[in-house]
C-alpha cells in the first residue's frame, strides 16, 4: 500500500491546533510535528508538547485520498491563511513499525551503563542494563540532559543510599540509581502520566519494590535524600531551589540538569549559599551542575 503525505508549513502557535483538526475532521493515519529549520529542542516536561517556532505538520493518508478536497477543507477551517504553504508527497510502502524499531539500538553510556530498547538483547549481560522503549512524552536516554544525568549517577557511590528523582518523567534516572545499588528511590512528578510511566518502566526492570512515586501534594513531609537528581529546566530549578535544597541531607549530593551553558551562572546564584559546586559537566550546549550541600 502506498501513502500520501501532506506537509504544511506553519508555526508553533497553531501547529497543534491544526493537528487536532486533521485528526477530528479527516481520515488521517498519523500526525508528526517536524522542526522546519532544524532548530534543536530539549525534552519536554512530562505531559508537555513543545513545538518549534517554525513547524512542519506532516499528515499521512491513504493513497486514494482526494487531496484537493483535503486542502479545501483546511482552507475552510480558517486555522491557516488561505495562502498557506503545503507539499504533497507520495511515500513508498514500508513496514513503518519495523523501520522505527530499527532506528533505535542499545545505547552505551559511561561506566558500563546501557539503555536498551525492549526488542533488543543486552549486549553485555554483566553490565548495568536499563530496558526502556523510545517514546515522545518522557525521557528515554537519547537527549544530552538525560545522558549527563545517567553518566553522573554512574560515577556516584549509590550503595544503600536514598535517592530523590525530582521530576522523574519516565523513571529512567530512578531505575538507573536502583540498578547502581541505591536502597530506595523517591520519584516526584507533577504529571500523573509520568508516575504511571515510571511505575511501568520500573516493573519492566524489576525494581518497582524500592521505587516510591508521588505527586508533590502527596509527598510525605521532611523527606531528605543522600543524593538528589533533577533533570528539569532552568526556570523550575530557579523557582524550586529552596525546596530542592531542603530535600538533600547535609553533605548530600545534588545533580541539576536541563540547563543551557548560557544559564549556568544564573542558576548557581540560587544554590551557592548552601551548595559547593563541582566543575560543570557539558555535552554540547547542555550542562549538568553537581555539588555537595554544606549548609
Automatic annotation (TrEMBL):
EC number: 2.1.1.-
Gene Ontology biological-process annotations: methylation
GO molecular function ontology, one term from the record: protein-lysine N-methyltransferase activity
GO cellular component, one term: ribosome
Function: Methylates ribosomal protein L11.
Record-linked NCBIfam families: prmA
Name recorded for this polypeptide: Ribosomal protein L11 methyltransferase
Species of origin: Paraphotobacterium marinum
Amino acid at each position: 500500500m502506498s501513502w500520501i503525505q501532506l506537509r504544511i508549513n506553519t508555526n508553533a502557535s497553531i501547529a497543534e491546533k491544526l493537528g487536532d483538526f486533521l485528526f477530528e475532521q479527516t481520515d488521517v493515519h498519523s500526525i508528526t510535528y517536524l522542526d522546519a529549520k532544524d532548530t534543536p529542542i530539549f525534552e519536554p516536561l512530562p505531559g508537555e508538547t513543545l513545538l518549534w517556532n517554525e513547524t512542519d505538520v506532516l499528515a499521512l493518508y491513504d493513497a486514494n485520498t482526494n487531496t484537493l478536497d483535503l486542502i479545501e477543507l483546511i482552507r475552510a477551517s480558517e486555522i491557516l491563511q488561505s495562502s498557506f504553504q503545503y507539499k504533497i508527497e507520495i511515500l513508498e510502502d514500508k513496514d513503518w513499525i519495523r523501520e522505527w524499531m530499527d532506528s533505535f539500538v542499545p545505547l552505551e553510556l559511561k561506566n558500563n551503563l546501557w539503555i536498551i530498547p525492549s526488542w533488543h538483547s543486552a549486549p553485555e549481560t554483566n553490565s548495568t542494563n536499563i530496558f526502556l522503549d523510545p517514546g515522545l512524552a518522557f525521557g528515554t536516554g537519547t537527549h544530552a540532559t538525560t545522558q549527563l544525568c545517567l553518566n553522573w549517577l554512574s560515577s556516584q557511590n549509590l550503595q544503600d543510599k536514598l535517592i530523590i528523582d525530582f521530576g522523574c518523567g519516565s523513571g529512567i534516572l530512578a531505575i538507573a540509581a536502583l540498578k547502581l545499588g541505591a536502597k530506595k528511590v523517591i520519584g516526584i512528578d507533577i504529571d500523573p502520566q509520568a508516575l504511571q510511566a515510571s511505575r511501568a518502566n520500573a516493573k519492566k526492570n524489576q525494581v518497582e519494590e524500592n521505587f516510591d512515586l508521588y505527586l508533590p501534594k502527596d509527598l510525605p513531609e521532611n523527606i531528605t535524600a543522600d543524593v538528589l537528581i533533577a533533570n528539569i529546566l532552568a526556570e523550575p530549578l530557579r523557582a524550586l531551589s529552596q525546596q530542592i535544597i531542603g530535600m538533600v541531607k547535609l553533605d548530600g549530593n545534588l545533580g541539576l540538569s536541563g540547563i543551557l551553558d548560557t544559564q549556568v551562572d544564573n542558576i548557581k546564584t540560587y544554590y551557592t549559599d548552601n551548595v559547593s559546586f563541582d566543575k560543570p559537566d557539558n555535552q554540547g550546549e547542555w550542562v549538568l551542575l553537581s555539588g555537595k550541600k554544606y549548609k
